[in-house]
Amino acid sequence: MRVVSGIQPTGNLHLGNYLGAIRQWVDMQDRAESLFFLADLHALTVVIDPRELASNTIEMAATLIAAGIDPDRAILFNQARVPAHAELCWLLQGTARMGWLNRMTQWKDKAGKNREGASVGLFTYPVLQAADVLAYQATHVPVGDDQKQHLELARDIATKFNQDFGVELFTLPEPFISPAAPRVMSLRDGSAKMSKSDPSDASRINLVDSDDVMAGKFRKARTDAEPLPAEMAGLAERPEARNLVTIYAALAGTGGDAVLAEFAGQGFGQFKPALADLAIATLGPIRDRMVRLLDDRDHVAVTLEKGAERARTLAGPTLLAAQKAMGLQV
Ligand code: ATP
Ligand code: MG
């Protein structure tokens, strides 16, 4: 089993990234050969500030290490330092079809009405994602449900490439959907997911937030005036309340019904402080470790470079085989 997953070094990591992705990565590194990367090439699909991108990459790597990714067990690197990602992406652009990419909901969401002004990279982003996993012959890709469609596309690209060139080169990656990985919603709007790119900082708990900031954001989180019911079924029409209970359950490592068994009949005046305490107990130590790691940014950079070296070694043979299959090598 080989697992590959990436995260964009844009903005701050938030509670959704932690519960939905990073915590699963930490579990994964003991069970599978794991490659985790900072997707700095993906970040180029939107307007970036080069200095910010470089520092974000280091900061995010430090956050991942602080959250429990062990760079000796997992291979941790930034994508740009492994040229096979971009090279294979180009090779796969001949295989991917416009129609396939046009159907991607993330493209539609992110480009919005401004398709003409969107970068070409934003459109071809899922092809780079396909290259990210196919370059390593990943068997499994941990995906939140916002990424299922892109993994399906990677499988389609792999299948068509193998057929078109009469090779059995690319492994078809399976989705790995952890039942313990919730979809965390915005604290301001229960119908939108918590996101780095949400302009409202109050919509998310950042992993770098101080204890007071976290507590304040939970206190101000949008809710309703009803007390909590005894079961999750009672929250079907209350997305904001459901989100807070889901977050509590995920942090506590239990289910929503178990949380409600404890808080049934209580209002948010009691629930929110309990939730804040739990979040602070989990995320506070991660933040403090991250701050210590960032005292020596060069050390983090060296760690990433060592990971990139290992990743280049793994991706090399697949890239070469793809080139041969396409007549690029005599
Ligand atoms: P952006 O708004 O820039 O897309 P993002 O917050 O969605 O940022 P990504 O870098 O796209 O973050 O996603 C990194 C990982 O975190 C992915 O595995 C994704 O599925 C997961 N993830 C992102 N947001 C959430 C969320 N709200 N709940 C659960 N998982 C999430
Ligand atoms: Mg996203």
From TrEMBL:
Motif 'KMSKS' region, residue range(s) on this chain: 193-197
EC? 6.1.1.2
Q: Which GO terms describe its cellular component?
A: cytosol
Where do the annotations place ATP binding?
Q8, P9, T10, G16, N17, G144, D145, D146, V184, K193, M194, S195, K196, S197
Q: What is its main location?
A: cytoplasm
Q: Tell me if Nucleotidyltransferase is a UniProt keyword of this record.
A: no
Q: Which Pfam families match?
A: tRNA-synt_1b
The listed location of motif 'HIGH' region is 9-17
Q: Where is L-tryptophan bound in this sequence?
A: D132
Name the GO terms of the biological process aspect: tryptophanyl-tRNA aminoacylation
Where does it localize?
Answer: Cytoplasm
- Which top EC class applies here? ligase
Q: Which GO terms describe its molecular function?
A: ATP binding; tryptophan-tRNA ligase activity
Catalytic reactions on record: tRNA(Trp) + L-tryptophan + ATP = L-tryptophyl-tRNA(Trp) + AMP + diphosphate + H(+)
Sorted alphabetically, the keyword list is:
Aminoacyl-tRNA synthetase, ATP-binding, Cytoplasm, Ligase, Nucleotide-binding, Protein biosynthesis
Can the keyword Coiled coil be found in this entry's annotation?
Answer: no
Q: How does it assemble?
A: Homodimer.
Matches recorded under NCBIfam families: trpS
HAMAP family attached to this UniProt entry: Trp_tRNA_synth_B
Q: What does this protein do?
A: Catalyzes the attachment of tryptophan to tRNA(Trp).
Which family does this protein fall into?
A: Belongs to the class-I aminoacyl-tRNA synthetase family.
State what protein this is by name.
Tryptophan--tRNA ligase
Which species is the source of this protein?
A: Sphingomonas rubra
Q: Which gene encodes it?
A: trpS
